[in-house]
């Protein structure tokens, strides 16, 4: 059974859970509100963000006293960084490539002001580049996208950046396809209706929207593999090789592709003590059990992975914790 949760309902629910578990009342110590910008509700960021928000909002071994964290749906990496920069959000999830570009003023942020205050809380898990196609669309390689109806994701997402890089690696631009700019949910609906041939999605597998799509439709994952992908990997160091195992999605075989890292970032302006407590809560035994039981990617949110792919500086509060436990020198 699939349960649909609206953004508002989820945010309110996470906040309410925080209040209930902490036993908050007006007489209690001042509360700290900590929003986590995630992604679309049909992706991976949103449910993972919800698990983290509820866990760190609880008091006791796994929680931070006085903290109410909420997972907020958004347009993804770029939008989350913009919200942190403007003060509209305390933190957010982003792809490692987008975080690096923002902090260094390169790539997507070339010619724009650097987001110099952007700081890393933790690297979470690998984010796989999915190129989903209708099985009858005749798309066997990325090059076959030429002339096809392809969704690159919405402006402001990290996916659209990577989809352009992948197209370029195979000698294509947006002008060579019939581009659309939709999130995974609407993309899947249009693909199902025959109005779209393929779409890009960057996120941890298995992702709910693709699982649901594959359960009732014949789809394929297009490999991002071979000399073109090798050249892309050599030019863009934030990419890594990846493989989606067979039957991750119904009737879809093993698919070689590439990935980036999902990261949780914040602003250097956030208090060191608060971020320290949040990170300590994230890697507590209780939160780790919740993450492992709650989502396939939760098993990868480990202390060992936390300090990998760090293309931007750690927040001092996070760095203090990682050094205390020996994860960082």
Automatic annotation (TrEMBL):
**Which keywords does this Swiss-Prot/TrEMBL entry list?**
Signal
Looking up PROSITE patterns in the UniProt record yields: TAT
Instruction: Return the InterPro entries for the record.
Output: TAT_signal, TRAP_TAXI
Where does the UniProt annotation place the signal sequence?
1-22
Stored PANTHER family: SLL1037 PROTEIN (PTHR42941)
Q: What is the protein name for this chain?
A: TAXI family TRAP transporter solute-binding subunit
Q: Which organism is it from?
A: Mesorhizobium retamae
Q: Which taxonomic lineage is given here?
A: Bacteria, Pseudomonadati, Pseudomonadota, Alphaproteobacteria, Hyphomicrobiales
């Amino acid at each position: 059974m699939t349960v649909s949760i609206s953004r508002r309902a989820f945010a309110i629910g996470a906040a309410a859970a925080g209040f209930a578990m902490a036993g908050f009342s007006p007489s209690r110590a001042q509360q700290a509100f900590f929003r986590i910008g995630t992604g679309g509700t049909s992706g991976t960021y949103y449910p993972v963000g919800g698990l983290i928000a509820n866990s760190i909002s609880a008091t006791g071994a796994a929680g931070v006293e006085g903290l109410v964290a909420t997972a907020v749906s958004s347009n993804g990496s770029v939008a989350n960084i913009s919200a942190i920069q403007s003060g509209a959000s305390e933190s957010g999830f982003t792809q490692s490539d987008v975080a690096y570009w923002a902090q260094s003023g390169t790539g997507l942020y070339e010619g724009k002001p650097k987001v110099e205050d952007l700081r890393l809380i933790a690297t979470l898990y690998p984010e796989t580049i999915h190129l989903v196609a209708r099985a009858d669309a005749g798309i066997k390689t990325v090059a076959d996208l030429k002339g096809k109806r392809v969704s690159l994701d919405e402006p402001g997402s990290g996916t659209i950046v990577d989809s352009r890089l992948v197209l370029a690696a195979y000698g294509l631009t947006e002008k060579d396809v019939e581009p659309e700019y939709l999130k995974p949910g609407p993309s899947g609906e249009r693909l199902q209706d025959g109005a779209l041939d393929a779409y890009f999605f960057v996120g941890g597998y298995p992702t709910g929207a693709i699982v649901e799509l594959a359960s009732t439709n014949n789809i394929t994952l297009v490999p991002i593999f071979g000399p073109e992908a090798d050249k892309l990997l050599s030019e863009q160091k934030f990419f890594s090789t990846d493989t989606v195992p067979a039957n991750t999605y119904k009737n879809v075989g093993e698919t070689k592709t590439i990935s980036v890292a999902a990261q949780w970032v914040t602003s250097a302006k956030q208090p060191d003590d608060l971020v320290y407590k949040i990170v300590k809560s994230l890697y507590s035994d209780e939160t780790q059990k919740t993450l492992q039981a709650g989502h396939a990617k939760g098993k990868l949110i480990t202390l060992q992975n936390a300090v990998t792919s760090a293309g931007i500086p750690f927040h001092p509060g996070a760095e203090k914790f990682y050094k205390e436990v020996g994860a960082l020198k």
